[in-house]
Design goal:
The structure is a single chain. By secondary structure, the protein is α+β, with helices and mostly antiparallel strands. It folds into three domains: 12-62 and 103-274, P-loop containing nucleotide triphosphate hydrolases (Rossmann fold), CATH 3.40.50.300; 281-380, P-loop containing nucleotide triphosphate hydrolases (Rossmann fold); 398-522, Peptide chain release factor 3, domain III (Alpha-Beta Plaits), CATH 3.30.70.3280. 25% of the residues lie in helices and 29% in strands. It has an eight-stranded antiparallel sheet. The protein has an eight-stranded antiparallel sheet with strand order 27-24-26-25-29-30-28-31. Strands 2-3-1-4-5-11-6 form a seven-stranded mixed sheet, with helices on both faces. It is globular, with a radius of gyration of 25 Å. The structure holds guanosine-5'-diphosphate (GDP). Residues 20, 22-28, 142-143, 145-146, 257-259 line the site of guanosine-5'-diphosphate. Guanosine-5'-diphosphate binds next to helix 2. This is Peptide chain release factor 3. It holds the Pfam family EF-G_D2.
C-alpha cells in the first residue's frame, strides 16, 4: 500500500469501546450498530448468552458456558466510508483485567447510561480508566422509550459523579409514553419518534431552531417545554468545545433508545464525525510514532487462551499502532529481539473468523500464538527499534489463596503459575510471613479461567480459598513493621517483593491510618 493510501485508510479508522453497567443496553446498541454496518441481519445475534445460539467454533468450555467468544471481542464493519472497530469490554462476572486493558487499545469510548438509573458502579470504574487515558468519551443516555430521569439531572450527574462536563448534542422531547422525538441541536432538526422498523423521519428547523409554523407539534406542550429547555442549555449549559472533547474533559451527550433503534443512527453518524482517527503514540524512548509511519508496529493488549482445545492455541490481540499489517510478514518482538513470521492472523467479525485482508493502524489483529507473546509486548517491522509504553497494572480487588491439590504436582503447579502470571491472566502475591500463594484479580472470571487452565494446560488441580474483596495498599518497606498486620489487613508481597496490605474494607483502612498516621499507603491506580 502506498503512503497516500495508507494515510487515507488510517484516517477512516474509528476504534472504540463501549463502557456501561450491566443491563444499560450495551449489547442492544452494539447490535444496532452492526445492523447499520450490515454485519448482522437481525438483532439478538451478537452474544450466544442472550439467545442460546452459540457460534460454531469450539472454544474453551468456560467461554462457551458464559457465552464469551472471540468474535464478539472485536467487531468491525464499514459504515459511511469509515472502518469501525468496536472492542468489547465484558461486564458482569466476565469483568477482568482484560476489560481494563482493552481500554488501552481504543481511541475513544462510548458510555451507555440507563436514563432511569443514571451512572452506576461499573460505569464509574471503567470511566476512571478511560479518563486517565485522556481520550474522547461520548455519552448515550439510553432507554428513552421508558420514563427516565430529567435530562438536566442526568447531565448534572456527569459533572457531580464523574467530574466531566456534559454537552447536550440533542435533547429528548418527552420520555416514555410522551416521547415525541429528539431535538437535534447539532443538526438543527428533529428526529420524530416512530415505531420500531419504520424509516427515520427528520424535520428541519428554521434559523431560530423552531419547527415550521404549520407543523402539528408546535401546538404540543412538550415541544414548548423542549424549546424552553433548549434555551436554557444554550444559555447556561456547557458549550460544545472540540478541544475539551478531544482531551476527555467534556463529553457530548446524546439521548435515544437502543431497543427501538431511535436516535442510534443520529448518534452513530455524529459520533463517527467527531471521534478521532488513530493518532501518534508516545514511545518509551521519548519519540512519537505517527500512525501513518510506513513501518508496521503494534502492541499486545490481550491474550486469550485455548480457544480451540484441539490445538491448544492462544490468540494474542494486537492493536496496530502504525503502518500496515501483512500476512506472513516478519516482525521483531521487542522484548526478546527475536524475529517472528506472522503467518496466522485472524480477522474479527461478528459471525465468523476469517483470514485478515488489510489491516492498518487502528485495527486489531489476532495472532495465533504458541507462547511467544506477553501482555504489553511490542512487535515491529523495519530497522528502527520500537517500544510502546508499558500497559498500566490494575490494582486487583478480589483475592484467593491457592495451593496445588496434589503435592506431587508441585513442579507443574509452579510452572503453570509462573506462566499464567507472566501472561497477565492473574496477579500473584505471597503471604509475607508464610510465603503462601495469593492470587489477585479485578473480576471473578479471572480465577475461574486460571483454575481451568491450570487443570487443562498444566494438568494440576488447584484448591482456591477465597479471601474475598480487599483494598490493596502498598507501604514503604522502610516504614514496615510486621506487627502492623492482622487478619483485617493481611500483609503480602508482590512479584517485586514490595510489601502491601490487603485491607478488609474501607473501615479497616481508616482504622489503620488513624493508628499509624505517619505511614504512607499508596494504591497503584
Ligand atoms: P447490556 O448488559 O448492557 O449489554 O444490556 P442489554 O443490551 O443486554 O440490555 C439489557 C436489557 O435492557 C435488555 O432486556 C434490553 O432489551 C433492554 N434494553 C436495551 N435498550 C433498551 C431501550 O432503549 N429501551 C428499553 N425499554 N429497554 C432496553
Amino acid at each position: 500500500m502506498n503512503q497516500q493510501k495508507l494515510q487515507q485508510e488510517v484516517a477512516n479508522r474509528r476504534t472504540f469501546a463501549i463502557i456501561s453497567h450491566p443491563d444499560a443496553g450495551k449489547t442492544t446498541i452494539t447490535e444496532q450498530m452492526l445492523l447499520f454496518g450490515g454485519v448482522i441481519r437481525s438483532a439478538g445475534t451478537v452474544k450466544g448468552k442472550k439467545t442460546g445460539n452459540y457460534a460454531t467454533s469450539d472454544w474453551m468450555e468456560i467461554e462457551k458456558k458464559r457465552g464469551i467468544s472471540v468474535t464478539s471481542s472485536v467487531m468491525e464493519f464499514d459504515y459511511q466510508g469509515k472502518h469501525v472497530n468496536i472492542l468489547d469490554t465484558p461486564g458482569h462476572e466476565d469483568f477482568s483485567e482484560d476489560t481494563y486493558r482493552t481500554l488501552m487499545a481504543v481511541d475513544a469510548a462510548v458510555m451507555v447510561i440507563d436514563s432511569a438509573k443514571g451512572i452506576e458502579a461499573q460505569t464509574k470504574k471503567l470511566f476512571k480508566v478511560v479518563k486517565q487515558r485522556g481520550i474522547p468519551i461520548f455519552t448515550f443516555m439510553n432507554k428513552l422509550d421508558r420514563d427516565g430521569r430529567e435530562p438536566l439531572d442526568l447531565i448534572g450527574e456527569l459533572e457531580d459523579l464523574l467530574n466531566i462536563e456534559g454537552c447536550a448534542m440533542n435533547w429528548p422531547m418527552g420520555s416514555g409514553k410522551t416521547l415525541k422525538g429528539i431535538y437535534d441541536i447539532y443538526h438543527n432538526r428533529i428526529e420524530m419518534y416512530r415505531q420500531k422498523g419504520d424509516e427515520p423521519q427528520f424535520v428541519e428547523l428554521d434559523q431560530e431552531g423552531h419547527l415550521p409554523a404549520n407543523h402539528p407539534l408546535t401546538q404540543d406542550s412538550i415541544y414548548q417545554q423542549t424549546l424552553d429547555e433548549i434555551g436554557l442549555i444554550k444559555g447556561a449549559g456547557n458549550q460544545f468545545d472540540r478541544d475539551k472533547i478531544a482531551q476527555g474533559k467534556q463529553t457530548p451527550v446524546f439521548f435515544g433508545s437502543a431497543l427501538t433503534n431511535f436516535g442510534v443512527q443520529t448518534f452513530l453518524d455524529e459520533f463517527l464525525q467527531l471521534a478521532p482517527a488513530p493518532s501518534a503514540h508516545e514511545m518509551t524512548d521519548g519519540t512519537t510514532l505517527s500512525a501513518t509511519d510506513p513501518q508496521f508496529s503494534g502492541f499486545v493488549f490481550k491474550i486469550q487462551a485455548n480457544m480451540n482445545p484441539k490445538h491448544r492455541d492462544r490468540i494474542a490481540f494486537v492493536r496496530i499502532g502504525s503502518g500496515e499489517f501483512e500476512k506472513g510478514m516478519d516482525v521483531t518482538l521487542q522484548r526478546t529481539q527475536k524475529t517472528l513470521r506472522l503467518n496466522n492472523a485472524t480477522e474479527f467479525m461478528s459471525s465468523q473468523r476469517e483470514q485478515v485482508k488489510t489491516a492498518v493502524a487502528g485495527d486489531i489483529v489476532g495472532l495465533y500464538d504458541t507462547g511467544n507473546f506477553q501482555i504489553g509486548d511490542t512487535i515491529y517491522s523495519g530497522k528502527p527499534k520500537r517500544e510502546y509504553q508499558a500497559l498500566p497494572q490494575f490494582t486487583p480487588e478480589l483475592f484467593m489463596e491457592v495451593t496445588a491439590k496434589n503435592v506431587m504436582k508441585q513442579k507443574s503447579f509452579h510452572k503453570g503459575m509462573q506462566q499464567l502470571v507472566q501472561e497477565g491472566a492473574v496477579q500473584l502475591y505471597r503471604n509475607y510471613q508464610t510465603g503462601d500463594y495469593i492470587l489477585g484479580a479485578v473480576g471473578q472470571l479471572q480465577f475461574e479461567v486460571f483454575k481451568f487452565r491450570m487443570q487443562n494446560e498444566y494438568n494440576t488441580e488447584v484448591i482456591m480459598k477465597p479471601i474475598g474483596s480487599r483494598i490493596a495498599r502498598w507501604i514503604d518497606p522502610e516504614q514496615l513493621d510486621t506487627t502492623m498486620s492482622s487478619s483485617r489487613n493481611l500483609l503480602v508481597k508482590d512479584l517485586d517483593d514490595q510489601p502491601l496490605f490487603l485491607f478488609e474494607n474501607r473501615f479497616a483502612e481508616n482504622w489503620f491510618k488513624d493508628k499509624y498516621p505517619d505511614v504512607k499507603l499508596t494504591a497503584k491506580l
